[in-house]
Specification:
Distance between the termini: 48 Å
Protein name: Peroxidase
Number of strands: 2
Shape: globular
Strand content: under 5%
Subcellular location: Secreted
Number of helices: 14
Order of helices and strands: HHHHHHHHEHHEHHHH
Largest sheet: 2 strands, antiparallel
Helix content: 40-55%
Enzyme class: oxidoreductase
Signal peptide: 1-22
GO biological process, one term: response to oxidative stress
Structural class: mainly alpha
Length: 331
């Protein structure tokens, strides 16, 4: 009963967050009040569906945030990730970063269906992803922020862009930073946004290399804390079991907090792409230390970096379209 009451209290806080704040400082033609007149219930509808989904499965919060990230790094934040293969569309869902791991599409479908009933042809799928990411943060104890809105949906997808632009778990620090830089994001954004790994899970196939063959010499990653590594080997075999899941944050996998950064300092980051933030670069190491010491500082920067990421090359004005179904372009 206490858990239900707590969940309802969080939902009530979400529902009173203002949707409209028309401030040009959010960048470009996007602003949080975009739907204030055309679909004033948009924010409440998204919040309600996301809250129900997260209540059923806490992991869904991380999955929805990941969809937003993987969408924005390919052609900008345009909902291209949501398109299924059809005709000339080759879906990004089949790319290496997304195949057998991207999830939450049915939640987006449910949100879109309710929005189409309330205000047909008005709210884009790209904006749904952006709002759902913010709500996922709040529902798991993380920060909130005003979401600039007004994105339109692409009429294309890019499988090659998905394969090439999204950082991989075993990329080097410099490769990851370069991929962020190409999106207009800097090292501060990289470290702050990586903090989203304070919730969710990763598949064995994404961290097996660290356990058994990090550098191609048959030896494990020596930066991995030994007892942590031994525990992971019990769950993730040398071969097979690719889909076996391990938590990204061993301290509080269902709570959005700063324990992820504390884990990195202890050499207990699950993915290579996590641990290199502490082991491979002086500036990122100092940011890890700062966020480990001050959760408020992390929350503030995370919100700022999420807004910045959400502003990557949006389609606005007459560009793109407002899809009726997030999985296919309008005929």
């Amino acid at each position: 009963m206490a858990r239900v009451s707590s969940f309802l209290f969080v939902l009530s806080l979400l529902c009173v967050l203002p949707l409209c704040l028309c401030d040009n400082s959010y960048g470009g033609k996007l602003n949080p009040g975009y739907y204030a007149h055309s679909c004033p219930q948009a924010g409440e509808i998204v919040r309600s569906v996301v809250a129900q989904a997260v209540a059923r499965e806490t992991r869904m919060a991380a999955s929805l945030m990941r969809l937003h990230f993987h969408d924005c790094f390919v052609q900008g934040c345009d909902g291209s990730l949501l398109l299924d293969s059809s005709g000339r569309i080759v879906s990004e869902k089949s790319s290496n970063p997304n195949s057998k791991s991207a999830r939450g599409f049915e939640v987006v479908d449910q949100i879109k269906a309710q929005l189409e009933k309330e205000c047909p042809g008005t709210v884009s799928c790209a904006d749904i992803l952006t709002l759902a990411a913010r709500d996922s943060s709040v529902l798991t104890g993380g920060p909130s922020w005003m979401v600039p809105l007004g994105r339109r949906d692409s009429r294309s997808a890019s499988l090659s862009g998905s394969n090439n632009n999204i950082p991989a778990p075993n990329n080097t620090f410099q490769t990851i930073l370069s991929k962020f830089n190409r999106q207009g994001l800097d090292v501060t954004d990289l470290v702050a946004l990586s903090g989203s790994h304070t919730i969710g899970f990763s598949r064995c196939t994404s961290f097996r290399q660290r356990l058994y063959n990090q550098s191609g010499n048959g030896r494990p990653d020596m930066t991995l804390e030994q007892s942590f590594a031994a525990n992971l080997r019990q769950k993730c075999p040398r071969s097979g079991g690719d889909q076996i899941l391990s938590v990204l944050d061993i301290v509080s996998a269902a709570k959005f907090d700063n324990s992820y950064f504390k884990n990195l300092i202890e050499n207990m980051g699950l993915l290579n792409s996590d641990q290199v933030l502490f082991s491979s670069n002086d500036k990122s190491r100092e940011l890890v230390k700062k966020y480990a010491e001050d959760q408020g500082e992390f929350f503030e920067q995370f919100a700022e970096s999420m807004i910045k990421m959400g502003n990557i090359s949006p389609l606005t004005g007459s560009s793109g379209e407002i899809r009726k179904d997030c999985r296919k372009i309008n005929s």
